[in-house]
């Protein structure tokens, strides 16, 4: 028995007690080629005991590449599970978002087939059966769900995330539960709405961040449960780098913008519900708000990171809604558990299909803030593919919020480090090599250099402002020269609404690949690409 009780005590539906077995005994249910649905969203609330045991079995018996599975998970999970699986060639398909180094390597070297998708759309499409239409039964073979407890009626009390568990249960032939006794049951923190399929889908009755529209448990058909395993593995929440000078400057630029919008009457004094994406910059922005003049704040987002606790502790945050407690393993989770009574009633964990729902995001007027790989001068953004081809993680939920928010903000350093160039690689480019978010979706671009408010501006005006306010000083002349050349030539040909010179628009990126720097000497063309 752990300090938080026994697996038997957590299973209040006593008819299920005879399903309790060891992780090793549960391995018999896993066959090569199966499609699996896992709980979890970021490294929180994901199954650990069975995935770790199965990886150990494959490694011990030299079965690499001989036991491969399709994985459908709400987002990324801990490296000790799926990233270990990737290193053992255990993953065939992976939807829709990941962060593991081995998973990304497998995707980019062709071993793993990945599909990228807006997370709210992935959740609903999974429930519609779009991802299982080619399986024998039209369903997932097996659901692997981590829970904190099971109610008397068989309802599942989830852990530190919800993810796509409701949709997984809808379309799974069989279910295995992992009861995690390494942390207390979080019963009461979840608000579970199980969306019906069209034409019977109902309105989500969420009019404020703290609204409750569902139940504290996920309904479950207990006849599908074939095994229950105890897990004593804690969530491996990831830590982020400390707040550096650049991130702090970005945060200050955003806070100054909020002050301006409040003064102009376009935002209330307590702002509007905030969404902040995953990563160190997002963490810094929230940390900056913890020292800002804004009080009575609310958060409607998909992940709660460590600095959200700072925002609570500062007395500025009243309520937060999320899909996941994406807290760090050694600082965030211990801090949350040590002060659980202070935070518990102020946090609501929701399914991905609700946490990222466009209808709710628009109704609440969420202020969306996310980090891209690069932004171009016309306000298109690339969130996923370095060089237009190398997958990093996936689009995540950024598109859900950036298309539907009240204010849509993208923040990035003006440059990223480069071994060959002391200034680094510019994140403001003439044209993104891949576009996830279009000019139609974004309002503001922010770097440590400044903030470009692009609302109401025509394309060429946006370009001038982004270069002036957001580009690094050493790249401004290069970008300005390109804009002038493109404008002159396109206007001459009467195609100048959004000027681009397609024969040289990626010259900075080509120079980076060849010479290690994006600082080009000029925009001349030396080779006729049509020869």
Characterise the protein shown here.
The protein is of the alpha/beta class and about 525 residues long. It has 2 domains: about 5-230, 3-Layer(aba) Sandwich (Glutaconate Coenzyme A-transferase); about 245-475, Glutaconate Coenzyme A-transferase (3-Layer(aba) Sandwich). It is built from 18 helices and 26 strands. A hairpin with a 5-residue loop joins strand 6 (about 140-150) and strand 7. Helix 8 (about 245-265) crosses helix 9 (about 280-290) and helix 9 packs parallel to helix 10.
* Helix share bin: 25-40%
CATH fold name of the largest domain: Glutaconate Coenzyme A-transferase
Number of helices: 18
> How many structural domains does the protein architecture include?
2
Structure classification: alpha/beta
Gyration radius, rounded: 24 Å
Separation, N- and C-terminal Cα atoms? 74 Å
Main sheet summary: 9 strands, mixed
CATH class of the largest domain: Alpha Beta
Sheet-strand content, in percent, reads 15-25%
Poorly predicted residue ranges:
none
Give the number of DSSP strands: 26
Mean pLDDT reading: 95
Tell me, briefly, the overall form. Answer: globular
CATH architecture of the largest domain: 3-Layer(aba) Sandwich
Tell me the CATH superfamily of the largest domain: Glutaconate Coenzyme A-transferase
């Amino acid at each position: 028995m752990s300090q938080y009780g026994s697996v038997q005590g957590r299973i209040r539906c006593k008819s299920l007690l005879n399903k309790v077995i060891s992780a090793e005994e549960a391995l018999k249910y896993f066959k090569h080629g199966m499609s699996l649905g896992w709980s979890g969203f970021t490294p929180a609330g994901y199954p650990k005991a069975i995935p770790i045991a199965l990886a150990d079995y494959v490694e011990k018996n030299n079965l690499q590449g001989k036991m491969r599975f399709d994985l459908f998970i709400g987002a990324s999970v801990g490296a000790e599970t799926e990233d270990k699986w990737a290193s053992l060639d255990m993953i065939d398909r992976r939807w829709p978002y990941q962060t593991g180094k081995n998973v990304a390597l497998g995707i980019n070297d062709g071993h793993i087939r990945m599909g990228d998708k807006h997370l709210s759309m992935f959740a609903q499409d999974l429930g519609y059966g779009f991802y299982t239409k080619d399986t024998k039964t039209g369903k997932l073979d097996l659901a692997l769900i981590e829970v904190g407890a099971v109610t008397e009626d068989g309802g599942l009390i989830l852990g530190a995330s919800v993810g796509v568990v409701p949709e997984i249960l809808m379309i799974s032939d069989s279910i295995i539960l992992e009861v995690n006794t390494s942390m207390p049951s979080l019963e009461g923190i979840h608000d579970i709405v199980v969306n019906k399929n069209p034409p019977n889908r109902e309105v989500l009755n969420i009019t404020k961040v703290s609204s409750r529209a569902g139940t504290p448990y996920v309904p479950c058909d207990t006849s599908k449960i074939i095994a229950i395993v105890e897990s004593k593995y804690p969530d491996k929440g990831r830590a982020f780098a400390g707040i550096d000078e650049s991130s702090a400057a970005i945060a200050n630029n955003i806070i100054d913008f909020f002050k301006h919008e409040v003064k102009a009457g376009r935002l209330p004094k307590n702002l509007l519900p905030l969404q902040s994406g995953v990563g160190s910059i997002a963490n810094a922005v929230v940390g900056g708000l913890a020292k800002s003049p804004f009080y009575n704040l609310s958060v409607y987002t998909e992940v709660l990171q460590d600095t959200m606790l700072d925002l609570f502790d500062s007395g500025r945050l009243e309520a937060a809604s999320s899909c996941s407690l994406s807290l760090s393993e050694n600082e965030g989770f211990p801090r949350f558990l040590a002060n659980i009574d202070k935070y518990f009633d102020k946090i609501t964990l929701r399914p991905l299909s609700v946490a990222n729902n466009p209808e709710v995001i628009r109704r609440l007027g969420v202020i969306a803030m996310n980090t891209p790989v690069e932004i171009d001068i016309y306000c298109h953004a690339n969130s996923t593919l370095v060089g237009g081809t190398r997958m990093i993680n996936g689009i995540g939920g950024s598109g859900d919020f950036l298309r539907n928010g009240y204010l849509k903000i993208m923040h990035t350093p003006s440059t990223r480090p480069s071994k060959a160039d002391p200034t680094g690689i510019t994140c403001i480019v003439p044209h993104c090599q891949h576009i996830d978010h279009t000019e139609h979706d974004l309002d503001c671009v922010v770097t440590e250099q400044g903030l470009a408010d692009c609302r109401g501006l025509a394309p060429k005006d946006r370009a001038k402002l982004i270069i002036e306010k957001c580009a690094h000083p050493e790249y401004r002349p290069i970008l300005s020269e390109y804009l002038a050349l493109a404008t002159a030539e396109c206007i001459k040909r009467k195609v100048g609404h959004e000027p681009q010179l397609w024969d040289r628009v990626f010259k900075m990126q080509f120079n980076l690949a060849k010479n290690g720097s994006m600082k080009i000497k000029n925009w001349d063309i030396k080779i006729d690409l049509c020869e």
